Amino acid sequence: MNTFPKISIVSVFKNSRDMLKLIMESVLSQDYPNIEHIIIDSESTDGSVELLHEYSSKYSEKKYNFIWKSEPDRNMIEGYNKALALLTGEYFMTHTDPFVNSSAVSLLVRNLNIGKYDSVCGGAIFQKDGVVIRRWSGKKGNWRFGWMAAQGSLCISTDTLRKHGNFSEKYTTSFDYDFQLRILMDKSIRINSIKQPIIIFFAGGVSNGTFNDNKTSIKENYKILKDNNVKFAWFTVLCKCIIAFCAYTFASRKNIEHELKQLPGMHYEEE
Question: Phi, psi at residue 51, to the nearest 5°?
Answer without folding.
Answer: -65, -40
